[in-house]
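Issue: copy button drops trailing tokens. Both records pasted manually instead:
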Amino acid sequence: MKNLQFEFYIDGTLEQVWKALIDPEFTKQLYYGSIIESSFKVGEPLVYVGPGAEGERTTHVYGTVLAYEPNKKLSFTHFTGKAYNPDTEKYESRITYELEQVGQSTKLLLIHDQLKEDDPSYAGSQKGWPMILSNTKTLIETGKTLVFD
């Protein structure tokens, strides 16, 4: 199994960082136009949908909520959308966001673990997570996002 872990410190409150993770208004800015849809109840589905290979409602990532503790922890199973990998069910992994107050800042820890050795999404995740998390930090601290293209 492969694991990815990233830690960022953000000049923002727990509530601000949490909102950036779960509010569609923010996820749309952070995840390239994708919004998050979920009841956030453990055992219920979670999906990121937005513009992509299958039109405006392309499923980019989906899974099942494993943990939901407001302003503290969100964890869910991770599968890439079928448009990216028709065999996605073979490659379940897990994403966990953990927040912690550190002084007047918030520590955002992202753990993307349980990736299979041959998971085709590993390289994209390894490259993409630092960009998404840097964008999260920048959006919270400045009110604008980074330009990557």
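Record 2 (pasted manually too):
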Amino acid sequence: MNETANEAADEIRDVVVVGAGAAGLNAALVLGRARRRVTVIDAGDPRNAPAAHMHGFLSRDGLPPATLLDLGRAEVARYGVRLVRGRVEAVDRGFRVRLAGGPVIGARRVLVATGLRDELPDIPGVRERWGRDLLHCPYCHGYEVRDRPLAVLGTGPAAVHQALLLRQWSDDVVFFPHTLEPTAADRERLQARGLRMVEGEIEHLVVEDDRLRGIALADGRVVPRAAAFLVPRMVPRDELLAGLGCARDGDGRIAADRTGRTSVPGVWAAGNVVDPRAQVVTAAGMGAAAAFALNADLLDEDVDNAVRRHRAAAAAAGTADAPGAPRDGAGR
């Protein structure tokens, strides 16, 4: 059950996880089982919400994305993980995690797993069909539309590769360059792969009876198609990480090592926020890797603190045993 932010703000947590997708929840699961005090904060707008099913996740193939998250929330709650519905506005270097509306939750470490958002081209019908019969990932959805007439919309630089890849799922794939200008080498590769190319700017998607029926071009032509693919512009939701001063890599993404550790001590990141190519199963694995590293980092701090307390106690005991020190109430 989700707590309110005010209910969750009463103590310093070992880890605050921002984002309750596969990466965030799997990290919380591992940390909860390690008996860490964990709070997961989520705004409730997962990237894959439009999709009816997810695929490529062993034992969970074909499961609705929302069902996976429901199962995950129930699992982490069994280990004492707190779940808070809310939107994080900022994370101070402290780490004080500030939620919209004012509540603040303190943390020793922070894991950001806020994912990304897909920016779609401004073509009529695209938003309405997104995640239904207008798709992105061949590995996620190619099998479900196998052997059908497929389209690939040339709305981004990766479109040619996507078209070449989709030929594995169907013998009837049409590539629509739209506003792209394929190179001579690209044209040759498409032709050699057995793909047809239809030139002309796309005007809209043709939809009838709540199903994609074709691609309409600006010159009036309509090419019948049963499903279409495009590569959206994937924009990481990395504002919190940027606000903390996390360094970026050569591609402009937040830099993180294999465990998700960023350049800012105490801050980790996992899932699509640092790797746009990560599928659900990959993001879950990234969350687990981050959790192991977070627990090890916390352990180092716990041990250092224990050693300091041990030395202070030993020093105090030594003072008490020194000559002239009061004993058994003497000198009172």
